[in-house]
Amino acid sequence: MFRSYEWMIALRFLKKGKGQTVLIVLGVAMGVAVQFFLSSLMSGLQTSLVDRTVGAAPHITVLPADSLPGYVSGAQKASSDNRKPIYSEKTEILSWQQYPEDLKKDGAIKSISPAVNGSGFIERGGVTVPVILKGVTDEGLKLYKIPGNIVSGKAELSGDSALFGKKIADRLSLSAGDKLNLKNDRGEQIFVQVNGVFDIGSEAGNGLVFLSLDRARSFLRVGGVSSIEVQVVDVFAADKLAKYYAKGNTRVKFESWQSKNRELLQALSAQSSSTNTILFFVIISISLGIASVLGIAAVQKQRQLGILKAMGTSNVSAAKIFIYQGFALGLLGSFLGVLAGLALGYMFVTFAGVNFGFDFSAGMIITPVILACLASTLASLIPARKAAGLSPIEVIRNG
Amino acid sequence: MADNIISAKNINKVYGAGNIKAQVLFDINLEIERNSFTALIGPSGSGKSTLLNCLALLDPPTSGSIVIDGKEQAGKDVNSLSKFRNDRIGFVFQFHYLLPEFTALENILIPYNIRHGKAPVNIVKEAERLMERIGILGEKNKYQGEMSGGQQQRVSIARALINKPALIFADEPTGNLDTETGGAVLSLMKEINAENNTTLVMVTHDRDIALQSDRVVELVNGRICRSINLKAAGVEGAEKQLENRSCYP
């Protein structure tokens, strides 16, 4: 293709019609830049939102099935077997060790941590403040990204130590090294030492108090664990994975982060649709621009086409000259567009003071490039048809 | 028997459709001998350019037969005609019709490019040899706008020759040039015709130019008025015959 004379003529037409070429290339480049910039920005924003929502939280939570199975009603089917309740975990998972063992084998799962959840009270300065307690292992601390977000002290849970979220620590004026008493709802009291204060960015996260798993179990009188918290490699696959595991395990239930964040997901999906609508119209306007400028070029080059046809250029070749021009304009424009999009994104993130990144993948570069090349090639079909249909004699007879 | 490269029979050409029709050519029968130089003359509107375009397979006749090299060409599809023109026919037009986006050398190579793609070194050398023969080698990297009318017409002659065609059709090749340049271009075309064993068919309104050919065919009102063999009649004899206005209304 690139060695053909049609390609040679197409490129020369573009080179010699510099003004028009520059206009179209700029049009394509702007369209691609907007496309690339918007999709990268939206992706960055979504990644950041999702990361803030579930980055330091479980993606799938394994919970006890909180209802017993009913008896099968109806006299016909009633039998002694049906009256036997199927064993189920109700408020806690007793024989929990099997789940981490099973889940560990799945490559889609990043980390697994058993947890004990409950609440307690802290009395300080004459005020009683309720707190949410979470008993976790070291793995659990990592899941909540505590080690990297310690504001003071250290991220270690041993013996009587506890880690406090920044919100609760500020409220109680606590700092690393402070000692205090923690009460449960039965009025039992244990002594804890503040080993560290963390700030994981989210409101809910910073309201937590972490204890070691064993201490929480004895303090909250939990025989097994309250839940098993799981993080997966692909955040968006969590729902599918949860459903998959739910099928094989009826004694517990699997809750994905998506099922608890429907509104966020709807907002993200609405945002994606509006972005795609904008991008669709950007492509349409690029195509119309190219079609009209190349259409004018086809009229302007009638003389040249006529003489080429007189010398033996076939209708298909005449059409190819314009199709190749469209393709070349799309390719050059989209290349410049990606560069401009990158520059735009860099400037936006650097100067607009946003608190989310500019996230792009190879797909986000390739998609607008392919779309622009496709759109400009398709747009060139209109002048190409005109070129194919031109009769050399019209040009020769009319001078 | 004469070796005819073109044999046209009962050529009619009608423009327009419905009520607005104009017949330009009426039952033209014409044979062109191989390696000859034929001049088509006639007043404006006599149909000489239309006949040339029909014979050159640029404009299909409304009816009639055109046999070139023993093969019927009338009724062939557009793409077969394009290929045939590229293979066998060279064109020289009054307005040169060079592609302004290409240099002189590149313009000359275009018929080759259409046929084979990128020209190899030996073909570029051949184009340069043609340019040297025609006296425009110095202009090889110039664009249309940088050359005089005469130079442009020489480029278009070289372009017509690059695929070594059997036939060259020229429509008023000197019409846009001053007398001196026109004369030089004509001599060149005659020489080239003789050197390359091509058949030259030329439309001209200039009687002096026509008298330098082997045969003059005069058209009046879309009909062949007379055909004069210059070798047999001689220039003076031909001039005398051309004085006869019996075909004119």
Tell me what you see in this structure.
The complex is a heterodimer of chains A (399) and B (249). Chain A is an alpha+beta fold. Chain A has helices spanning 5-16, 18-55, 98-104, 138-143, 166-171, 213-220, 238-248, 257-260, 262-300, 302-310, 315-351, 362-379, 381-389, 392-397, and strands at residues 60-64, 109-124, 127-136, 150-153, 161-165, 179-183, 189-198, 208-212, 227-232, 252-256. In chain A, strand 6 and strand 7 (189-198) form a beta hairpin. The relative contact order of chain A is 0.18. The model of chain A is unreliable at 67-88 (pLDDT under 50). Helix content of chain B is 38%, strand content 28%. Chain B is globular, with a radius of gyration of 18 Å. The two termini of chain B are 35 Å apart.
Q: Which regions of chain A have little confidence, pLDDT < 50, spanning 5+ residues?
A: 67-88
Provide mean pLDDT of chain B, rounded. Answer: 89
Largest interface: A-B, 28 and 29 residues
What average pLDDT do the residues of chain A reach?
83
User: What does the largest sheet of chain B look like?
Assistant: 6 strands, mixed
How much of the sequence lies in strands of chain A comes to 15-25%
Number of strands of chain A: 10
For the largest beta sheet of chain B, what order do the strands appear in spatially? 6-7-8-3-9-10
Task: Indicate the radius of gyration of chain B in whole angstroms.
Answer: 18 Å
Placed side by side, the strands forming the largest sheet of chain A appear as 2-3-8-5-7-6
Distance between the termini of chain B: 35 Å
